[in-house]
Amino acid sequence: MARWYRLGLMAFILVAVWGVGASSSLEAQVMDGKSQPRFTKAGDGVITDHLTGLDWYVNPNPDQKFREAKAWVEGLTAAGGGWRLPTMAELKAIYQKDASAYHMDPLFQVKGAWAWSGELRNDWSVWGLAFYNNLQGWHSMNYGNGRVALAVRSHR
Predict the structure, then answer these.
(1) Buried b (16+ CB within 10 A) or exposed e, 98-137
(2) Which of 1, 64, 94, 100 is the most exposed place for a label (fewest CB within 10 A)?
(3) DSSP code string of 58-110
(4) What pLDDT digit, counting tens, does each position of 48-100 carry?
């Protein structure tokens, strides 16, 4: 009986450790037999998320109101263009607790902790994500303090 108990306990520990390790979004991804980090940054500033297949580009200017952020994204021609503001789901997908001060991969190097989405709440407010606590919320389009714009597109 003690032997079965020990075997069962060892199996439980192995499954628990394997499950925790397999779910970490900070780990390297294995692709084509080679280990690769989830995010890589090209010389042109484009950050590729190899897990979701999205490209990201960070606006270096902090404190942007929504209309400024939207105009920046729509005029962005970096790496061939095709950029847009992200959805809430896309913003939540890059949240990584304790990966950096703002809980996203350090490659992003953002200068604010709250990112605009492209999803309007109504005629005067927009949804966004507070990366300091992973909560979604909305703000007036005319509010810009601590707000950043992230551009996203499908990987090319």
Answers:
(1) ebeebbbbebbebebbbbbbbbeeeeebbbbbbbeeeeee
(2) 1
(3) E-S--S--HHHHHHHHHH--GGG---BPPPHHHHHHH--TTSSTTSS-GGG--
(4) 999 999 999 999 888 999 999 999 999 999 999 999 999 999 999 998 888 77
